[in-house]
Amino acid sequence: MCHVIVTCRSMLWTLLSIVVAFAELIAFMSADWLIGKAKPSSSEEEDNRTGGSQEPYHPTLGIYGRCTKISHMQLSRRDTLCGPYAENFNEIASGFWQATAIFLAVGIMILCAVAFVSVFTMCVQSIMKKSIFNVCGLLQGIAGLFLILGLILYPAGWGCQKAISYCGHYASAYKLGDCSLGWAFYTAIGGTILTFICAVFSAQAEIATSSDKVQEEIEEGKNLICLL
């Protein structure tokens, strides 16, 4: 018989697992990993026509995508074009970024799988006599290691020609040049830290759902068990 067991710790672990998976996925897909040096957004002729100058803009560069402005659309609100600069995996600007993409993709796939499974831990607490929380926690730890490898390799690709075109000639491996780090990079780091927190917290979720109080309510014949 299926017993629905809901505790504060198990629900918190489930919510964190979902948040971490989405945060890493959004960061991976974003083009805001590097913020390039400022570039003028309009020509002198357009400045004279509009009666003033526009603020310079900062193009952004991701692992496989970028955002920049199109000159003939500068007077429109839709003047920023974002999309992948690489049509396939081999066109990613650096071999280090290709490795980063692989490690992050593997880590994110594991996190998404765990997030999906975590939703069903209210009904299923074990698989083949092993705690589903412990298994998911182990997978989250492995995913965290993949994410760390990807984030360590990513700065090694700052010396590629694509990064130099955005960050200037002083850019090199682990040196940003004229660029700065965007929110996507910090989100990926924050998600990685939360991944390990989730892995540790999964043990608390296991303890909460297998406590003596839960067992007592199961013996009383309750199918829905909610505990603080």
From TrEMBL:
Signal peptide: none annotated. Keywords: Fertilization, Membrane, Transmembrane, Transmembrane helix. It is found in: Membrane. The keyword Transmembrane helix applies. It is a multi-pass membrane protein. One of its GO terms (cellular component) is membrane. Gene3D superfamilies: 1.20.140.150. GO terms for biological process: single fertilization. The keyword Membrane applies. The chain crosses the membrane at residues 12-35, 96-120, 132-154, 183-203. PANTHER family: LHFPL TETRASPAN SUBFAMILY MEMBER 2 PROTEIN, LIPOMA HMGIC FUSION PARTNER-LIKE PROTEIN. Belongs to the LHFP family. This is LHPL2 protein. It comes from Geococcyx californianus (Greater roadrunner). The lineage of its organism: Eukaryota, Metazoa, Chordata, Craniata, Vertebrata.
